DNA sequence: GAGATTC
DNA sequence: ATCTCA
C-alpha cells in the first residue's frame, strides 16, 4: 500500500524551488529548477548521455546579471525574487542560515522566512515543513483553502479570498487537531484531491474522516471526533 | 480587496 | 503566490 510522505529536503533547494512555484504549474517549475542547476550548479557527472548538476550555491544566484539572465529564459518576475533572496540571505545572514533555522521554533523560522523577497506565508510554510523539520507547518494554498472550507470549516465558505487571517485560522485548525502531524495531514488533503490519486484507496480524501467516499463526504457529520489519522503515516529522509 | 506579474 | 496600490 502506498502512503503519503513528507520528505526532508535540502533547505536551499526547497526555498528557491518554492519561490519559483508562485502562480505557476509543476512542469514549468521543474523546468525552471533544472535551468538553475544547469546554468549555475556544479557539474556532478553523467549517466548515459544525461548530465547532472547540483543545485547552485546562493553566492552564484545573487546579482543583477543573474536576474537579467533568468528573465531572458522565462522566469518572469521570479527572476528578481531569486537573485534578491540570495543576496538578502548572504548579506543579512550567511550561507548556512537556512540549515540553522532547523533548530529554531516554527514561529521564528516562519517569521524569518517571510522577511525574504518573494516569500510569503505559504512558501514559508512549504520550506518549514519540507526542509526545516517543522511538521506543524500547514501550507495553505487555494486548493487546501477550498477543501478545508467545504469539508472542515463551513464558516469559511463565504470568504472571498485567502487572506492572512483566514490562512492563520486554517493552519491553527489543523494544528489543534493534529499537532505535530498537521503538516502531514495537509499533505494527505492535498494529495487526496489530486485527480491521479482519486482512485488510490489508501490515501483518499475521505480517509481523514471516519468513513465513506469523497462524493458523500458533504452529508457526513462534521464533528472533529470523527477525524482519523489512522495507520498510514509515513516519513522519509530522502527521495 | 483588486489588479499586475511570467508563460 | 506575492506584491503593490488604494
UniProtKB/TrEMBL annotation:
Indicate yes or no for the key word Repeat. Answer: no
User: Example GO biological process term?
Assistant: base-excision repair, AP site formation
Q: Name one Pfam family in it.
A: HhH-GPD
Source domain of life? Eukaryota
Entry EC number(s):
4.2.99.18
Record-linked InterPro entries = DNA_glycosylase, HhH-GPD_domain, HhH_base_excis_C, Oxidative_DNA_repair_enzyme
Keyword entries, A-Z: DNA damage, DNA repair, Glycosidase, Hydrolase, Lyase, Multifunctional enzyme, Nucleus
**Record GO terms (molecular function):** 8-oxo-7,8-dihydroguanine DNA N-glycosylase activity; class I DNA-(apurinic or apyrimidinic site) endonuclease activity
Question: The HhH-GPD domain covers which part of the protein?
Answer: 20-187
Protein name stated in the entry: N-glycosylase/DNA lyase
Give the organism's phylogenetic lineage.
Eukaryota, Metazoa, Cnidaria, Anthozoa, Hexacorallia
Amino acid at each position: 500500500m502506498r502512503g503519503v510522505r513528507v520528505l526532508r529536503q535540502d533547505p536551499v533547494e526547497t526555498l528557491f524551488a518554492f519561490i519559483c512555484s508562485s502562480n505557476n504549474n509543476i512542469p514549468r517549475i521543474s523546468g525552471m529548477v533544472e535551468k538553475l542547476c544547469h546554468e549555475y550548479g556544479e557539474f556532478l557527472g553523467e549517466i548515459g548521455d544525461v548530465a547532472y548538476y547540483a543545485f547552485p550555491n546562493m553566492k552564484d544566484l545573487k546579482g543583477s546579471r543573474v536576474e537579467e539572465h533568468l528573465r531572458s529564459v522565462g522566469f518572469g518576475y521570479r527572476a528578481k525574487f531569486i537573485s534578491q533572496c540570495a543576496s538578502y540571505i548572504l548579506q543579512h545572514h550567511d550561507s548556512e542560515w537556512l540549515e540553522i533555522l532547523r533548530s529554531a521554533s516554527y514561529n521564528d523560522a516562519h517569521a524569518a522566512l517571510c522577511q525574504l523577497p518573494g516569500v510569503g506565508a505559504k512558501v514559508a510554510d512549504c520550506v518549514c515543513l519540507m526542509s526545516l523539520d517543522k511538521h506543524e507547518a500547514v501550507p495553505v494554498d487555494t486548493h487546501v483553502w477550498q477543501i478545508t472550507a467545504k469539508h472542515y470549516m463551513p464558516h469559511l465558505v463565504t470568504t472571498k479570498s485567502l487572506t492572512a487571517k483566514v490562512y492563520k485560522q486554517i493552519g491553527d485548525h489543523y494544528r489543534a487537531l493534529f499537532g505535530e502531524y498537521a503538516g502531514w495531514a495537509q499533505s494527505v488533503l492535498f494529495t487526496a484531491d489530486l485527480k491521479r490519486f482519486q482512485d488510490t484507496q489508501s490515501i483518499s480524501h475521505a480517509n481523514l474522516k471516519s468513513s465513506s467516499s469523497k462524493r458523500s463526504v458533504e452529508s457526513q457529520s462534521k464533528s472533529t471526533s470523527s477525524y482519523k489519522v489512522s495507520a498510514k503515516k509515513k516519513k522519509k529522509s530522502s527521495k
